[in-house]
Each structure stands twice: as C-alpha cells, then as structure tokens.
Amino acid sequence: MWNFSVVTGWIDALLHRWMGATWALVAEFVIVGLALLAVYAVLALALIYIERKVCAFFQCRIGPNRVGKWGVLQSVADMIKILLKELIRIDRSDRFLFRLASFMVIVGSICTFAALPFDKALHAIDFNIGIFYILAVSSLGVVGILMAGWASNSKYTMIGAMRSGAQLISYEISAGLSLLVIVILSGTMQLSEIVEQQADMWFIFKGNIPAIIAFFTYIIAGHAETNRGPFDLPEAESELTAGYHTEYSGIQFGFFYLAEYMNMFIIAAVAAVMFLGGWTPLHIPGWEGFNHAMDWIPGIVWFFGKTFACVFIALWVRWSFPRLRIDQLLGLEWKILMPICLVNVVLTSILAILI
Amino acid sequence: MGTSANLILFWTLAAVIVGSSVLAVTARRMMRAATWLLFVLIGTAGLYLLLNYHFLAAVQLSVYAGGVLVLFIFAIMLTSANGDRTEPQDKRRIAPALLTSLAGAGVAVVAVMKQRFLYGAPVEGDTEINMKAIGTALMGSGKYQYLLPFEALGILLLICAVAAILIARKK
User: Fold this and answer.
1) At what angle do helices A250-274 and A130-138 cross, to 10 degrees?
2) What confidence tens digit (pLDDT) does each residue in A252-293 have?
3) Is residue B55 domain-shared with residue B115, that is, in the same domain?
4) Residues of chain A with C-beta less than 8 angstroms from the C-beta of B73
5) Both B122 and B134 in a single domain?
6) Which residues 26-45 of A have a C-beta within 8 angstroms of B?
7) Tens of pLDDT, residues A76-105
8) Are residues B20 and B9 in the same domain?
9) What domain range includes position B122?
C-alpha cells in the first residue's frame, strides 16, 4: 500500500541537502506546525458548515444557502467577520487571565490534534505513550474554561465554568476507562501500533462484547467532554446566555468556538483510531477479493470517512435529545456510566487472560 | 538532536519555570498565583519531555495540570470573590525569607553537584523508557519491581477518598 513516508522522506532529504542537521530539524518543526495549524483551521470551518447544514436538515430547514453554491462559503464569510470584530474590554475583569483563557483552551486542543495518526507515516509524533498523551493534554482545556469563567467577572460565566469543570472532570474518567479496554486488548498505548493491529479486523469487531460496550461509553463520555448537546449545560443558552464564554467577543470568542468544534473532531478521531481501525481499510477474514478491493482506497480517506461518521453521530445525538439537568448529568456519570466502565475493564481483563 | 539545541531548550524551560515560580509566590491575586503555578507544572513536564521520559511528562500534565490545579481553581472560585487580593507582604520578612531560600538552593546545588550520574552527561537523555518496561516494573513482584508499594499507595488513596466523603457528608 502506498503511504506518505515517500513524501515526508523526500522533504526530509531535501532539507538535509540544503542545511545542517539542527536547522533542518528546526525547519521541519516549523513546516509541521504550520501544516497542522492550517489543517486545524480548515477542518474547523468545514465542521461548522457541516453542523449548520445537518442541524438544518434535522429541523426541516435548508440552512446556509446564499454564500457560494449550497452556502459552502458561509463559514469562510463568518470567519472573516469574526476576525474583523472589536475585542470588547470587560470592566473590572482580570484582563491577563481573560486573554490567557482563550489561548489555554485552543492550545490544549491543538496539542491533542497534533498527535493524531492521519495515515500511515502521516503522523506528527508517534509517542510510545500515544493515547495517554492525548488524554493528558486534553485536560489542559478544563483549566482554560475555568479561567474564562472566573476572569469574566459575571455570574453566568461563573456558573457555566463551575458546571463545565464538574462535567469535564467526571466524564474524563469514563473516557479514560473506555480507552483502557482497547489498551488491554492491544497491549500497547502507541497509536500507530494500535492501528496496525487492526489491519485484519477492527477492534470493535474482534474485541467481543467489551469493545462494543467501550465504544458506546466512550462516545457518550466524549460528547459530554466536548460540552455538546444533550450535555451542553456549561453554555445552556436558555439559562446562562452562553455559559463560560458569554463575555468574549471577536476572535477570542472564535478561539472557544473553534476549540469546541475541533474537540468534537478529536473525540471522533480517537474513537475512529481506537475502535474503528484508524486508517486501516475494512477487512473481512476470508473475503480475499473484497479485502483487495478495499486496499485500493487510500488510508487518509478511511481515516476521515470514519471520523466524519463519528462526527455525524455526535450531530445526530445533539439535535435529537433534550438537554439534561446538572444533577441528572452527574448522576449519569457517577452512578451509571462509571460502574459500567469499571465492570467492562474487569471483563476485558478476564477475556484477555482466557483467550 | 544536537547538544546546543538541547541546551537552548533546557535554558528556555528553566527560565520559564524560575520566572513563573517567583511570580506564583509574589502574585497578589489567588487566581493568578494558581495560573503561574500551572506554568511551573507545564515547564516541569517539558523538562521530562526533554529527558525523553514521555510517560512522566504525561503523568505530570494529567495529574498536576489537569487534576490538582483544577481542584485549586475550584477551591479559589468557591471561596473568594473576583476583587480579593492578599495582604501585602511584611517588609521585615524579606531578609529571613531570602536567607531561607538561598540556603535551600545551596543545599540543592551541592547535592546535584556531588551526585555522580549513572549515564554521564546529565543534559542529554537519549534512552526512552518503553511503556511496557514501566508497566512490568510497576506491576511485577520480582526484584526492582514495585507491586506492593503500588497497591499500598492505592489503598492509601482509597482511604483518603472515603474519609473525604465522610467529612463532607452532612448528617
């Protein structure tokens, strides 16, 4: 199968011919960083358009349809508008923390995004601790949200931040425990190796019942972690105006907005990598011709196809279920989801020992 | 990576850690002090990354930056208002405080200088420790393996959690 190591290897050789080893490395850091930022921004715009369109179809509307064919340029226009908006200075707010909060949220999100394996060899950094790194870095966003709620000096943002802190910390447990099931099944935390192991069959199929349970618990916990409906209490617009980012304007609000959408993408991508085989094609043991035909589809198409399928589930859930109350939300995590996850981990361990 | 690049990264991280530590102590608002502490913790994680000890860096981030610090911020949010500032430091305390911190730094420097490091150069860490090796060392019961301390600490943390719930519960 063709992979991206040809391209990356060629760029690497070219840079080494032009300059010394250290400077080549620095140049590569810059190139990788710029590429990731560009992909991050473009994906966020695409996701905002998809969300608006899908939401419109769920509500029997047409959605954006004026800017460009089928309104595809709508989110680009929105981006230009948000870049030109004034940054409002909030009276008696903590300005330093107010500014810092939006950066914290987006830095946590970009650091997570950078570690995703998009295709074979199209992987910025392949940590030995892969999935643990993703869980660790994504927890930086919580600090940013709490900071935003505090620094804005407003009751709505404060309540929104408190809710979101409680929610994110609680649901991180379930998300971590669900991913632990796959770590037990694969025996590694390295993302590239987890994906390689699913070349014959995806973990959701060969992981028996525990993997299926873990997939659903991860999806539920993931939706809660991204503050999206039915778990969007931190920004419940009917009660809290807009929650923790009520006081933000212009591009600072844009950062929160971008981070929210990209976190949804990251959760979907992690689900695709851990449970649905990342960039490996769909293989069914025994069907040689079918498997061979599937190999013709490039890995990056598989990755984005699976990820956007998971994103669609997130949108579907968001526009179908009503919002929970905060006590129901925390009760769901601590009384239902977490016990299920713990039992599931024990079940997986027993199965892993037996098989 | 070249030694010079390693040194540049190290000194940048060290400057961030030292600067943020001083600011964390001197900040007048609790929330800002917590924020500077966050930078100290992230900088320390960066040092672990520089040493190629990825596991410890991730633990540092998830336990301190994502766990302990969030608890701090929660506590500050629940107990103090936005305008609250701490009392200005007493001028008479400066000399003893300076003396104590210098003495502490001196002890640390002497200890580091006297220590003979196992792998020679302390700046370059090229050996990434495999996650499997860490896992078996933590969970094994043989020589140089830490199953018993691990379980003992687990029970200690469980006792703490139960006790905290017991204290927080109202009759």
Assistant:
1) 150
2) 888 888 888 888 899 999 999 888 888 888 887 777 887 787
3) yes
4) 143, 146-147, 150, 165
5) no
6) 26
7) 888 888 888 888 777 777 778 888 888 888
8) yes
9) 3-86+93-129
